[in-house]
Amino acid sequence: MTAINGYQAADDRFDKMEYRRAGRSGLMLPAISLGLWHNFGDTTPFQTGRDIVRRAYDLGVTHFDLANNYGPPPGSAEENFGRILAKDLAPYRDDIIISTKAGYGMQPGPYGDHGSRKYLLASLDASLKRLGTEYVDVFYHHRPDPDTPLEETMGALAAAVHSGKALYAAVSNYSPERTRQAAEILADLGTPMVLHQPSYSMFNKHIENPEYVDGYDGAQSESLIDVLGDLGIGAIVFSPLQQGLLTNRYLAGAAPAGSRAARTDSPFLSEKNISETYLARARALNDIAAARGQSLAQLAISWVLRDPRITSALVGASSPQQLEDTLGALRAAPLTTAELAEIAKYAIDGTAK
Question: What is the pTM of this model?
């Protein structure tokens, strides 16, 4: 294949990655996918993001996850990925999975948030323009909207698929009960739900908890991971490294300069997360990782991927080297029963809230 602007993908890229089926669908995703939530907006040099994406693809990462509001500013991650697609990846479009989402606030006024048909379909059109592509592979509703009928929201996802602007429909952050309802509606519309994107890590295990209290739907009677397994829907989990707390960055007990926890604009992670409880558990997990020849981050990825119902772990990266280090998780031996039992002593939900 002829190189564009000097870039030609590695011929052996697919041999370097494990691919997993999304539930009972035909869609295959890499076991580790690249999320463009951070480090791909206009506050990061374009070439940095470009280098990360190109290295990811050379290593078999075929799935790039976006949303309309990723940046900052909102929309800039899609625009920058669109530039990378045009400059480097256009010849490989058929071998790439691009996903985007709508559901969080994108613009002021009544038509730029939540789950109405008007917002979702207009947002998808705007995303396609920013990305410079005729379709996305996966289109998500990004979060539940308790004020819009679920039939309307799922109808918008189905319309996106039927129009050819998306190939698959998906949701994110839905409760077990709402996931069942949404999947039934989509099935009736001839557009099966193929993916659900929840958060999940050794310190955030809510998808395993059948008594989890959802912020939108209240107490639940079954776990999300059991619902996804039952319905044949794949799970692609975000924040498997707990916003960096399941890495070696914070084990010394303070947020390093330039880290996410040290930034005052980080919406989810701050120095208050670096408690003595967190440190004790993270250091114990780090010792387990070291005994396996892994970093703490690699152990965290191995742990979420231990469950065959998890299709992919969604990670970010601030450099090609950081991404390569994370992908090293796939070279490790499967976790043994004894290792899982030892991990369970320290992998406790709520440690790093």
Answer: 0.93
